[in-house]
Design brief:
By secondary structure, the chain is α/β, with parallel strands linked by helices. It has 13 helices and 18 strands.
């Protein structure tokens, strides 16, 4: 039986997952053209390793990470590279590789199952995961191989797979755990081997009984005593990394530290399934399960879709629009981001697309009012912060106050916004202040660098002038000596 744990402060949100969970995961049609963004949404850029006109196969590498802390991109379709550059339809999306699908789905020759992972040294397994372009599918997209290598270097003890999925609309992980629990468990075993962790826990919320049953059966089938299932209360934001780790292990990640520093590693259940699929079929990360939902969609569902598929095509595969949606966003309603239109392509970071109508949008107070110091924001903050004090620091741009009250520890979950009776956009102001602080820090760093460069230049100029004076005085002295000798 799965263990049950309590959770830190948060809020109970009304969910909108039932409609998308009425059917099994549907395979989305392959796009006629795949638009693979070089920045998949995590700020890490990749460099194209193909040329315009070149033919690529399904799974062929098409862009390489520009740093070690990156993940390569692979072709989600077979065909020819039409162009590489800024997308005309969505210029804000940045550069992309456009591939015309020839419909063959011819696999890359390297598209083969891995050797039995138990026979592979952990370092080699990590390298194969790196070559597969696997990245965190919970939304952050941190490269999985890098995370596993860092965890192994720190001799972590406990791997936690995050299946909490606490956002009101997102249910792709729930669907995946119901239908591919074996892959989730197998992926957990592979991550245990790669990271060196001695135990692993799969954490879900108690509003996912079918997923819990499927995982329980998969765990029983493998009989791996290192793995366990934990059920958490359905409280938002149970899926936030640090809060989840504390709820599961009882350990708290210190300020300024990371989970591996205290022997912990977290990964998303979708990431684990992708690792298992890589081992079983050799398939790199060219697809993901994504929730398509909202009252503006005819048939909400979960889809197994290829990266680079235009969102308009996914909406079309879900029956199309029921009207003109008021808003289109990806991710959750609490932490997601608005999309200007449906021409954007699917990225690895997009776990949910919502076409929202008036019926879906939470009405908020139209006018911001002064803080009444009610303390509701502090009561629900899962990070244990005092948002009202942070807001005071933001308004005065008092960096010492912001540091004292822990602005760096804010996870931008939106709980404080949700409960604020004064309709103060706290999270947005915290986010803006963080950006401003980074810009001020960068400006100060540039100023310091310029000052040091100037001082170095002045020292060099002074040294050069002193050297010239010495040479001049030496020449005068030699001239005087020569004259005294009667020369």
């Amino acid at each position: 039986m799965a263990a049950r744990r309590e959770f830190a402060p948060g809020i109970a949100l009304e969910t909108h997952k039932q409609a998308a969970m009425q059917s099994r995961i549907a395979p989305a049609p392959a796009p006629a053209q795949a638009f693979v963004l070089l920045d998949q949404g995590d700020g890490r850029h990749t460099v194209p390793c193909v040329r315009v006109g070149e033919r690529v196969r399904l799974g062929s590498p098409i862009a390489c990470a520009d740093t070690d802390a990156g993940a390569d991109l692979h072709a989600p379709v077979a065909g020819r590279v039409r162009s590489i550059g800024v997308l005309e339809r969505v210029p804000d999306a940045g550069h992309a590789i456009i591939i015309d699908n020839d419909g063959s789905d011819e696999r890359d020759p390297g598209f083969e199952p891995l050797p039995p992972p138990e026979t592979l040294p952990p370092g080699e397994l990590i390298e194969l995961i790196r070559r597969g372009g696997i990245a965190g599918l919970g939304g952050a997209l941190f490269p999985t191989a890098t995370k596993l290598a860092q965890a192994r270097a720190r001799s972590i003890a406990h791997l936690v797979l995050n299946g909490a999925e606490c956002e009101p609309w997102i249910c792709c992980d729930d669907a995946l755990m119901r239908e591919a629990a074996d892959d989730v468990v197998r992926g957990a075993q592979l991550m245990l081997r790669a990271s060196g962790a001695k135990r692993g826990t799969i954490a879900i919320e108690n509003d996912k009984p079918q997923a819990g049953e499927a995982l329980g059966a998969a765990l029983a089938a493998v009989g791996d005593a290192r793995l366990a299932l934990v059920v958490l209360p359905a409280v938002y934001p149970a899926g936030a990394e640090r809060q989840l780790l504390t709820a599961v292990t009882g350990l708290e990640v210190p300020e300024g530290a990371r989970p591996p520093d205290i022997g912990l590693l977290s990964q998303n259940v979708g990431t684990a399934a992708a690792v298992a699929r890589l081992a079983r079929t050799g398939e790199p990360l060219i697809r993901r399960v994504v929730t398509i939902s909202g009252s503006g969609v005819a048939r909400p569902c979960n889809m197994d879709a290829r990266i680079g598929t235009p969102i308009a095509e996914l909406i079309g595969a879900a029956g199309g629009y029921t009207g003109t949606p008021r808003r289109l966003w990806f991710g959750g309603s609490m932490t997601g981001r608005a999309l200007p239109d449906d021409a954007w392509p699917l990225t690895r970071a997009m776990n949910c697309i919502v076409a929202a109508t008036d019926a879906d949008l939470v009405s908020a107070a139209s006018v911001e009012r002064p803080c009444i110091r009610c303390g509701d924001c502090a009561r629900v903050c899962p990070a244990g912060l005092l948002p009202q004090e942070l807001h005071r620091g933001v308004r005065s741009h008092d960096e010492s106050l912001l540091e004292r009250y822990g602005l760096a520890d804010c996870i931008e979950c939106g709980c404080c916004d949700y409960v604020c009776p004064s309709a103060i956009p706290l999270v947005e102001r915290f986010r803006q202040e963080r950006v401003a602080m980074r810009e001020r820090l960068a400006a100060a760093s540039r100023a310091t660098e310029a000052r040091l460069h100037f001082e170095l230049h002045e020292r060099r100029a002074a040294d050069l002038e002193a050297s010239r004076r010495r040479e001049f005085e030496d020449a005068r002295r030699r001239a005087r000596d020569h004259s005294a000798d009667g020369g």
